[in-house]
Amino acid sequence: MASTASHASPERVSDPSAADLAAGKGVTLLQRVILPRSGDPLKVRSLYVDEDRTVRARSSSRGDATLAPGREVSFATYFNAFPASYWRRWTTLDRVVLGLTLSGRGRVDVYRSKADGSVIHVTGATTAGEERRLEFELDLTPFEDGGWYWFDLTADDAELTVRDAGWWSPQAPEQEARLSIGICTFNRPDDCVAALQALADDDVVRELITTVVVADQGSRRVRAAAAFAAAEAALGGRLRLVEQGNLGGSGGFSRTMYESLTATDATHHLLLDDDVQIEPDCIARLFAFARFAKEPAIVGGQMLTLQDRSVLHTMGEVVAPDTFFWRPAPNTEYTHDFAEESLRESPDLHRRIDVDYTGWWMCLVPRAVMESVGLALPLFIKWDDAEYGVRAREAGHSVVTLPGAAVWHLSWSDKDDEAGWQAYFHTRNRLVAAALHSSFERGGRLLLDTLKHDLRRLLVLQYATTALRHRGYEDFLAGPEQLFPLLPTALPTVLAHQADYPDGRVIASTGELPPPSMGATRAERLMRKPGNPVTAARALVGAVLHNMRRPDPAAAEVPQLNVPARDARWFVLARIDSATVGTADGRGVTFRRREYDTFWRMLRHTLAVHARLYREFPELSRRYRAHLDQLTSPESWEKAFADEVRGG
After folding, report:
1. 56: pLDDT confidence band, cut at 50, 70 and 90?
2. pTM above 0.85, yes or no
3. What fold, for 179-316+355-414?
4. What is the fold, at CATH topology level, of the domain defined by 5-169?
5. Is 152 among the catalytic positions?
6. Which of 385, 475, 503, 577 is an active site residue?
7. CA Rg, the chain, in Å?
C-alpha cells in the first residue's frame, strides 16, 4: 500500500487534545467499519482494506484488525470510507464522528478528499500501548461537490489493533423510523432463503427490521426450501410470506410495497432482489441515510458484480432526455475494478454523482414517497425501477444512489437482455415511460433510436427479436388501458412466440451442426472491423446490396460462419446468409439464417409502425399521463392481486 501521507496536504498540523478525542460524541451509528470475510480472495479484500498484499491485516472477527509491527493499512476503500459529500448534500448533518478503539503502539490519521480526488490530511492521534477509545468529530462543510473521509493506521514497533470502528452522527434523528424489507422472488427458493438468513444473522440489521415481506411468485415455493424454517425462526416473527402467480418484478415489488403500506406501520420500505449476495451493514447504511434525509428521499444501493466481486458496475445512472434510454451518469463509467485501482487512485469516484433513478436490486423507498406517487407501473419487468425514480423526481422527491452501500448481483455482461423474449418488455416499457415523462412532444430522438435498433437487429439476422419488438410497439399503441390486463399474460405470450424464427431457438453446441462452409481467409477478412468511415460505408453498401439478393439455399442447412457472441456485428452478419452465433452467457448458440421475404416484410412493418408511432405519440402521451394515477394506485394493484388469485 502506498503511503497516503506522501500525497496529502495538511489541513491541521497538531494532534488533537485528549478532550477533543473523548468518547461520547457519537450518538447514532451510520456506518460500521467492516473487515473482509474469512477466506475472501485478495480482489474482494480490496473493497475493505488497502493493504500490503504480502502481509495482510489479521482479523478475529469482522469488526477488528491487527497490524504487524511497522505495517500500515488504509481504510480508504469502498466499504469503509465515508461518502461525506452525499451526507453533506442530502441530510441534515453538518458533522460526523469517527469512533474507534485502538490498542498497541502506533497512530491513526484521518484524511479527506476533494471532488477532484486530491487528498488532505485532517487530523491524527497516537497510542502508546494502552487500549484507548478515540472519537474524531469531523466537519461535513467542505464536501458540497464531492469527497470522502477515511482513516489510516500505522503500527510502530509492536502490533496495533483496531476494533469497533465506525462512523456516527453527533445527534439522533428527529423522528422515529421503522424499516420493512420487500423481497421479490421467482423460482429461487435457496437464494431467497440465503438472503433471509443474512438479514437474520446480523445483530444490528435484524434489530432494525420490523417486517420482511417476501412476494413468492414461483412454482418452486420458498417455504419448501430446506433452510426456510430455520431462517423464518431466526427472524423472530418478522417474516410475512405472500404467494402469488408470476406478475414479474413490478408485480412482486408492488406486492411488497402494498403489504408494507396496508399491513405494517413501517416508515421506510427497502426493495431487495432475491439473487443477490448481501453485505448486511449496507442495509443499515441506507436506513440511516434515509432517517437523516432533509426530505423523504429514495436511497438506493449500488451494484457490485457477482461474477467479479471487486468490480463496481456503475456509480449511478440517468435517463438521457433525447433518446429516453438509460446510461451512466455524467463523469462515471461502467465496471470499475477496485482491485486494479483503489479509491484513492480513482479521481472520478470522488465527485458526487446525481442520478435519475436507482436500481431495485436494493432500493429504500419512504412510505411518504409511496403515498405520494403510488406503486410501480404494471410493466412486468424492465423500466419499472427507472420509471419510478423519474416519477418520484418529477413529484419533488430526491433520488440518491449511495456509495459504500451495495449488493453483489449478476451484471449484464453475461446476457443480452435486449434480445430474445426480454426485447418485448424493453421496447414496450421504454415507450410507456417516455410517453409519461419525455419533455419532447414526440419523444425527441426516441423513435429514431428504436428504428435504428430494428434495422440493426434485421441486419444481424435476429428476426425473432424484431418480431417481439414489433409486438411491443403494438401493445404500446393499444394504450394504457391494456397494461393491467396484459400483466399476467404478456410473458406466456412472448415465450410462446420466441421460437417462431431460427434465431430464437438455442442449440447446445456448434457440434450439432455441420462445419462452416466459408474458408478461413475470407472469414478473417469479413470479420475485420472497418477501420475508418470509408471502409464502414463500403461495408454498409455491401450489406444493403447483399440483402437485395436471395440467400444461397445451401446456407439454410450449413452455416457459413461460426461467430462468437462478441463478434456478432452488423458488418459481419449483414453480408452473409447464415451463421451460428454464441449466446451472451456462452451456454449455446443460435443458428441465424437470412430470410429474404422475412427481412423485407419486417422492414416494411418497422417503417409503417414507426410512422404511426410518430403520428400518434402526442395523443398516446396524453392518454398515458391521464391514466398514471390509476395505473400506480394501491387500489388498482389490490384488484390485480385479487384477479390473479381468481385466475383473472
Report:
1. confident
2. yes
3. Spore Coat Polysaccharide Biosynthesis Protein SpsA; Chain A (3.90.550)
4. Spore Coat Polysaccharide Biosynthesis Protein SpsA; Chain A (3.90.550)
5. no
6. 385
7. 27
